[in-house]
Amino acid sequence: MVWERLDRAVCTAKWYDLFPATCVQTLTCVSSDHSPICIRLGGFEAKRSRPWHFEQMWLEDSGCRDTVVRTWDRSVSGSPMEVVVSKLGACQKSLLQWSKNSFCHVRREIAEKKKLLKVAEGEAAQGRQVDQFQKLKSDIVDLLRLDEKMWQQRSKEHWMISGDRNSKFFHTRASQRFHRNRIVELRNSEGVLVSGEGNISTMVRDYYKNLFLSSGLSEVDEVVRTIKSVVTEDMNNSLISPFSRVEVEVALNQMAPLKAPGPDGMPPIFFQKFWSDIGDDVVQAVLFCLSSGCLLSASPKKWSPPAYEVWKINFDGALFGESADAGVGVVVQNSRGEVRAALTEKIMKPHSVEVLELLAARRAALFSQELGLDRVIFEGDSEQVIKALQWGGWDFASGGHFIRDILCIVNSFMSTSFSHVCRQGNAVAHALAQRARHCFPISIWLESYPTDISSFVLADIQHLLY
């Protein structure tokens, strides 16, 4: 028996724009070879936070390069890969701010210019302001080119070259691609339909975690011995030879400029266009990754001091059993491990540990702002929270607004970064969070700290002396 999908629902692009959340469901029929189709109309979907990405059209403005170069030249400490990750995060913040302040909203600007053009056309017909009329026409052509590039990047239609005023086509393809990629529900291994963004995210993550796990293997060595060797000595020497800068540059230039942006939102075109300014750092990071076998260095198990004139702010949250309360602890230390300030606060118990850690991170950011510190490293022991703050994303709707709030606070700082540390390296902040059980509602120490956590503070300083 051959199964073929014969029955389809068809609509125009204009109609789909009015009902973007519409979905088509194929129903079961036992009396015909055709299946009935149920069209479920839907209006506008709830607006989801769109991941940030580098816009191709920004390259048309010289301010883009100035922003990237100025941001990249800042001094950052850490492993080569950590340096690049930190600088990419800083570029993301700088470009976001630059685009808001200096780069126009293209479609709104086009509409405004067209209104002015209509007035100028009447003036030019009477022999007045002809130069203004010509300038407006030129400005609109430039804006239309930017608009076309923006929608070409979103549509992922790389086969069609921009420059022929294909904005409408690119916009339609981008809309179709968005709806095609939308996942409403999935069927799990037990045949049960799973819906909801949080449930689907958990299901997909668990699937790929278990995909390459093995179990019940036996006599593997005997199987391997029966496999004929096809790699010669020369081939092996070539494969194990050290990686070089040339190989990194060749691999980068072979990438399509607008395909496969990373979680930082930077497509290959960003690295290709700014290679003369950022290439040295990127090559060092890639070679470090390939030679060490890890993307980032392992999280430290002990507290480490920040650079001179940089403050490290550790934060943590603590739950108190069945109590309806929770605690937040924050400590500020300098390059010698001396405590500048400490805070412990009792709050209402949130619905998850991850949200509690986000609340602790937010309190640390606010505390830094209140103290007037603008060169800060924020450090916590929740790897999920730190990664979300580094990349500006969050899998669950319950924490996204906290991420945006924290990044908005630290955006005004001169220098910020987020790092992960194991629990034993975050002992002072954890002790302060546990201490919140007995305080109400908040306690703050300046140039000092509570005596009952002295042993944890001394442990941070003591290992630095040896």
What does this structure look like?
With 466 residues, the chain is of the alpha+beta class. Helices cover 48% and strands 13% of the residues. Among the domains are: 106-181, no CATH class; 311-465, 2-Layer Sandwich (Nucleotidyltransferase, domain 5), CATH 3.30.420. Strands 9-8-5-6-7-10 form a 6-stranded mixed sheet, sandwiched between helices. The protein is globular and about 80 Å long. The termini are far apart. 26% of the residues are buried. Mean pLDDT is 80; it is low at 157-163.
Helix segment count?
A: 17
Give the N-to-C terminal Cα separation.
76 Å
Give the structural class: alpha+beta
CATH topology of the domain at 311-465: Nucleotidyltransferase, domain 5
Strand content: 5-15%
Number of strands: 10
Main sheet: strand order: 9-8-5-6-7-10
* Approximate helicity band: 40-55%
CATH class of the domain at 311-465: Alpha Beta
> Any guess at the CATH architecture of the domain at 311-465?
2-Layer Sandwich
Principal-axis shape equals globular
Mean pLDDT: 80
Q: What composes the largest sheet?
A: 6 strands, mixed
Protein name: RNase H type-1 domain-containing protein
GO molecular function, one term: nucleic acid binding
Domain RNase H type-1: 314-436
Q: What's the topology here?
A:
Elements: H1 13-18, E1 23-26, E2 37-40, H2 62-72, H3 80-101, H4 106-125, H5 130-155, H6 167-181, E3 185-187, E4 193-195, H7 197-211, H8 220-225, H9 233-240, H10 245-253, H11 268-273, H12 275-292, E5 311-319, E6 325-333, E7 339-348, H13 353-371, E8 375-380, H14 383-391, H15 397-410, E9 415-420, H16 427-435, E10 442-446, H17 454-462
